[in-house]
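Long-time lurker. I teach an intro course on protein structure, and each term I like to show students one example going from raw sequence to a predicted 3D structure in token notation. This year I'd like something fresh instead of my usual example. Would anyone be willing to generate the tokens for the chain below so I can use it in lecture? Attribution to the forum is fine with me.
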Amino acid sequence: MSAVQETIRRRQHEVSRIVRWPRHWALLALPVPVVGYILSMLAAYAGLAGWELWRTPLRGWDVVLFAALMTCGAVCVEATRRLGQPSGVSRDLLSAWWLPVVLLLPPLYALIAPALLGLLLYLRVRRGPVYRRVFSSAALGLAGACASILFRTLAPVAPQAPATGWLIYPGPQGWFVRPQQAGIAVCCAVVFGVLNTCLVAVAAWLAEPDGRLGDMLWDRERILLDLTETCVGILVTIACALSPLLLVVALPPVILLQRSLMHQQLKAAARTDAKTGLLNAATWQREADAEITRALRRGEPVALLLADVDHFKKVNDTHGHLVGDIVLRGLASELRQQVREADIVGRFGGEEFVILLSKTAPGEALRIAERLRRGVGVVQVLAGEATIGVTISIGAAVLGVHGRDLLELLAAADLALYRAKETGRDRVCLSEPTDAARQR
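-- Reply from a regular --
Happy to contribute to a lecture. Here you go:
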């Protein structure tokens, strides 16, 4: 057996071994730094929960308010189950019930709340491996406990309990007679969201160290969702401060907002390719067809680029399909960064990508294609001890020169791509009259 064959056999064995791990034990297949980080988080959560359990007395009012908030959270979980939570939906409004726990109750309850709702969410919805749900609950619990401790340190509004020093339920006077109380509450709510995001982002970065930590922390859409969740949580907290009976009034709007949020996420998931985050083929075709119709009506130039990764099968055979997926994500990110916001980028299938360049003449299209080819050529993906680099071949076609609709442009670009492959790969070819003759 040659060295190459032995490498292929070993990689295939490693991938199959990972895939065969039972779903409940998938944690053992993660990289060692990720496993260590998750276990350290769980240890910190268990230690802090034990400490707070020892020092926090149980008061009847605290237990009643906590039970009411958890009941509202359980109703939202049931609504999630009935609506369905398929792949691609990752955000909900359960923080609307965690935040009042953080701001109105001792830190012990902030540690317990995510664990209870997380367990219920797993039992009723069953999404993802167990370790992800446990880690998410631990991160939320630690972030909530820190925010709760900070809030009680900065904003004492009631006499301290003699046994523990923690505050009792402040009531409406503490929230509305002292204006600074609301400002501190908002700041602590932001701290809660920021800390939870950072804890989760570190785990994602350890799992994929080649990725940009900033992208894992926030993007524009994620920030808007975080602000929405914080505002809803603050409103529910104020309602609780006035009277826990107002939870009955707050619950229906939260469920409707959750439904709307899930609907928007489902629409976004239906538009994108799961592996690369680009538009999927069907969505790209719809948007490209609409753009071409507008360009024909306005007399504007449009170019189409069809890119294919050279020798991608060799990457999969040598390093495994999991590494191949990482390469595709890296290429997709590079392509998206190299074009304008108005350009339409999608994954056309397999290792093929397609870009529609609006208001782009033939000469400019070739310059952009060359920039893309060079940019992809310097992308390096780490896979264990190996560094993987790939190249792409690009076929280009221009509206009005090589076709009058999307299908004609795709056919012309595909023939140009075939010619780029035939003449040595890692190059750009513009569709030529001979291609049109071959197409007919």
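Some talking points for your students: The mean pLDDT is 77. Residues 179-207 form the longest helix (29 residues).
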